[in-house]
Specification:
Blueprint lengths: L1 H12 L4 E3 L4 E3 L11 H12 L3 H14 L7 E3 H19 L2 H14 L13 E3 L5 E2 L9 E2 H5 L1 H12 L3 H15 L10 E2 L18 H8 L5 H17 L1 E3 L5 E3 L1 E3 L2 E3 L1 E3 L4 H10 L7 H20 L9 E3 L21 H13 L3 H16 L1 E2 L2 E2 L18 H14 L11 E3 L5 E3 L3
Antiparallel strand pairs: 1-2, 3-4, 4-5, 6-7, 8-9, 10-11, 12-13, 14-15, 16-17
Bound molecules: 1-deoxymannojirimycin.
The site of 1-deoxymannojirimycin (DMJ) has 8 residues, from helix 15.
Length: 437
């Protein structure tokens, strides 16, 4: 599947950010600005390496060496460029030892630094790589930056300081942490939106989005960063109390708190949290390891149900637990599957920590469904309705399909000594970064 995805991108989308597998041409979205930065190449590198696809890895390296240029007049998402490009380049560097990846990662980080030039030091969501001018998305509450987006910068920025000896990156992200620590937290929860001009929370929305960076900061520091672990422990206690519920059919789910009430809806993105609870079980407060492993298993089960209750056996973007509905999407615009990794990510973590064969079985079901319904002759495509027996394609092969979905599947069927979790921490885009002993 990796060969099929890569070869078609190589043939029809090379140098573009992503591939349109049906139109057989390049694809891009506004997160990468208007330039061709080969997002799929950078995102896929470490997966190619891990899978032993060395010729393909070398092709990617050559393209990066000759063509990857960040001096472009292009406004990009700081978060996306960080997790996919800086994370991808750093992982490729650590795995292969090739200096070019480190050099490019540091060059790119320099282009993102102007995003931190705000009155509070909370970065803008977007930055122009040439001018350094930053701004926020129009849709984010009151011109806010987004918690998971700026929070997860921590992982890569700590590594950048470690590799360069320059504390500037570390200082930027530690400043964010200090600021967050000082803020009020309604019910112990961090709201999703923070205004970088005023330093005040925006709309009081609480989601568990795809970032476990506090836990990972602790792990990455060889468990020395106990401040991060404490913040993680406090946060998950509040999450469990206010956002996690059991449906009438007995399924544990994580809801979304908006406008003063809990919406009984869980996003595919939130399914990563099963793996997070398992990863954080060891070292948990009051020795509740068993409890968190169980919680991880329950989330994995719920997310598997969201796949199993569809026609295609692929999970919808969001599913409800309301009015007799259990783990099923209700609105048409929540029925799509865009090759996302989070459910498989959770299967893999659960497999590593329990070796219960059901996780491999569930991963295999998902593999077969993706191969049956998302494979087209020009690559892999998302589908618009997982409840339809004749689904239409969205015609996008997302770069995270190669970076994450296929990597987690490969790891699920590999031995534990391939990237052992004692030595590696996976960033928000599944790029492995070594523990800093
Ligand atoms: C990826 O870019 C990352 O996993 C991110 O954390 C969330 N969105 C996509 C995958 O769904």
């Amino acid at each position: 599947m990796m060969k099929h995805a890569w070869d078609n991108y190589r043939q029809y989308g090379w140098g573009h950010n992503e591939l349109k597998p049906i139109a057989r041409k390049g694809h891009s979205t506004n997160i990468f600005g208007n330039s061709q930065m080969g997002a799929t190449i950078v995102d896929a590198l470490d997966t190619l390496y891990i899978m032993g696809l060395h010729d393909e890895f070398r092709e990617g390296q050559e393209w990066i060496d000759k063509n990857l240029d960040f001096s472009v007049n292009s406004e990009v998402s700081v978060f996306e460029v960080n997790i996919r490009f800086i994370g991808g380049l750093l992982a490729a560097y650590y795995l292969s030892g090739q200096e070019v990846f480190k050099i490019k990662a540091v060059q790119l980080a320099g282009k993102l630094l102007p995003a931190f030039n705000t009155p509070t030091g909370i970065p803008w969501a977007m930055v122009n790589l040439k001018s350094g001018v930053g701004r926020n998305w129009g849709w984010a509450s009151a011109g806010s930056s987004i918690l998971a987006e700026f929070g997860t910068l921590h992982m890569e920025f700590v590594h950048l300081s470690y590799l360069t000896g320059d504390p500037v990156y570390y200082n930027k992200v530690m400043h964010i942490r200090k600021l967050l620590q000082k803020m009020d937290r309604p019910n112990g929860l961090y709201p999703n939106y923070l205004n970088p001009r005023t330093g005040r929370w925006g709309q009081r929305c609480y989601y568990v989005t795809a970032s476990a960076y506090l836990l990972k900061a602790w792990l990455m520091s060889d468990k020395m960063d106990t401040e991060a672990r404490k913040m993680y422990d406090d946060a998950i206690e509040a999450i469990e109390k206010h956002l996690i519920r059991k449906s009438s059919g007995g399924l544990t789910f994580i809801g979304e708190w908006k406008n003063g009430h809990l919406e009984r809806k869980m996003g595919h993105l939130t399914c990563f949290a099963g793996g997070m609870f398992a990863l954080g079980a060891d070292g948990s407060r009051d020795d509740k390891a068993g409890h968190y492993l169980q919680l991880g298993a329950e989330i994995a089960h719920t997310c598997h149900e969201s796949y199993d209750r569809t026609t295609l056996k692929l999970g919808p973007e969001a599913f409800k637990f309301d009015g007799g509905v259990e783990a099923v999407a209700v609105r048409q615009n929540e029925k799509y599957y865009i090759l996302r990794p989070e459910v498989i990510e959770t299967y893999w973590y659960m497999w590593r920590f329990t070796h219960d064969p059901k996780y491999r079985q569930w991963g295999w079901e998902a593999t077969q469904a993706i191969d049956k319904y998302c494979r087209v002759s020009g690559g892999f495509s998302g589908v618009k309705d997982v409840y339809s027996s004749s689904p239409t394609y969205d015609d996008v092969q997302q770069s995270f399909f190669l970076a994450e979905t296929l990597k987690y599947l490969y790891l699920l069927f590999s031995n534990d000594d391939l990237l052992p979790l004692d030595n590696w921490v996976f960033n928000t885009e599944a790029h492995p970064l070594p523990v800093l002993h």
